[in-house]
Amino acid sequence: QINTYQVSLNTEISDQVDKINEIGEKIAFYNQQIVKIEAAGVENANDYRDARNQLLDELSTYVNFTFQEDEKGGMQVYIEQALFVDGGLNYHLGCETMPGTGFYKVRWLDNGYGDAFDTSEAYSNEKKTDVGSLRGVLTARGLKIADYSDMPKQPVKDDYIDDAGVFDETAYKVAMNDYNAQVKRYNNTTGNSIITQIQAQFDQLVHNVVKQINDAFAPNLEVSGDKVDLDGATTGTTEKGDAFDLTKLTGGTYKILDVRNCPVGTDDNATIGTEVFSRGQVDRYQKITLDSQIYTTDAEGNQIGLAQKTVDADGNETYTLYLYNEENENDIDWMYTLNSLVINKDLIADYSLLEVKANPEQGLEGAYAFGGNLFQDLLNSWDKELGVLDPNSLAAYDFDDYYTNMIGGLGVRGNGWNSMVDYQKSQVESIEDKRQQVNGVSSDEELVNMMLYQHAYNAASRYINTIDNMLQYLIERLG
Fold it and tell me: CB within 8 A of 222, min separation 6: which ones?
């Protein structure tokens, strides 16, 4: 519903641009008529001037503009410092679709100024960028459909401490500088719109819920490449039949399915690694078939097999490594976001794939996963810290409190905007009343003035008649 409302605002932008262009054409027309009529210096084009003033009043509801009148009676109008009307000539605004979003940005079509509005910074009263309904709709709509990736994530100090307990202060400062730059960008874009802000907040909530559920049914191990033993193996085979270079696994850090502790499905194959929620086009794991087992070492120095062992009817052993496909925030198909999220189609087709049984590796053949606390751990995850609602705040919430504060914050902000709208309306009405007292025509006031002038005329007439009679009397009597 939020996305639908956002699209409707995009349509409103196009409608307002058309209306502004129409006003510009009419102002240019009246400029021509005023100059023509007043050229001889005999009369004023009052009707045309009144009509032009009304158009300026209407234009002021859409955009912030300035104007000046030349000595011939023509007018120049500037929108955001760009020439809009110059005497009998007017320039036009147009809507251009921004790549990858389908949203409009407003550009000048024929005066060479390019973008009509700077949308890279938050609106400002000081810079007069908070004036006009077109600016307001552009701000409210935002620049894109926001998601969790638009919420800056503050670096955690513990991530910059190595195994020896040494803190990498330089790397942490670099990460913090990048984070502060992201916060500034957030405040100027996503956080500048109440719509994109709530989109990002809600998507962050859903993203974390989905991760908690998927990680409960298909838990991962984080493996450090320097602790991987390939045991002589060099090549594996992907599901597509392509060769996979196993030496890639000996560098960096990555995630794989915990084949020893994950629950299994109730189907005959005891399937593992089935996620509940899927990304748009990317599987949770890249499955790599190996000829032999590969290992890692845990904190106690124990050797752990990383691949799932299977034995066919002929007794042949094969091993499958489930390499987790990390999210890529630059590609929506690789993200667990509302904009691409679906329930796993394999689960919809076959519910038995849902991993609710204990892993046979734990010695609980045929048992359900209740004994492994799968569902209790899932419930406990609701008490874990999800994150902050706003990068400008340090307050972090668990899942329940996050949702409560998200809705409460939206209500408080909406109520604040409603109060501001009511105040602005009262201010406009007050100013309009004062203007009408100067420019407007009050029938009651005009009637009073007519009666006043009529009585004054009658009094003056009687005075003249009296003087005339006195003079006539004097002339007749004394002449």
Answer: 253, 254, 255
Position 152 in a domain: no
For residue 475, what pLDDT is reported? 84
Q: Residue 226: which of 249, 256, 255 has the closest Cα? A: 249
The mean predicted confidence, pLDDT, of the chain is: 90
Which is more confidently placed, 433 or 293? 293
Q: How far is CA 169 from the centre of its chain?
A: 34
d(CA 322, CA 307): 7
Structure tokens at 240: 């597509």
Token look-up 């009052």 returns 46
The tens digit of pLDDT for each residue in 451-472 reads: 999 999 999 999 998 988 888 8
Q: Which domain holds residue 459?
A: 441-478
CB 336 within 8 A of CB 210: yes
Same domain, 378 and 467: no
Distance of alpha carbon 31 from alpha carbon 49, whole angstroms: 8
Edge-to-edge order in the sheet of strand 228-229: 228-229, 295-297, 303-305
**Does residue 412 contact residue 401 with C-beta atoms inside 8 Å?**
no
Question: How many domains does one find in the chain?
Answer: 3
pLDDT at position 397 over 70? yes
Q: If we measure between CA atoms, which residue out of 132, 145, 144 comes closest to residue 17?
A: 132
pLDDT in tens, 170-205: 999 999 999 999 999 999 999 999 999 999 999 999
Three-state secondary-structure class, residue 113: coil
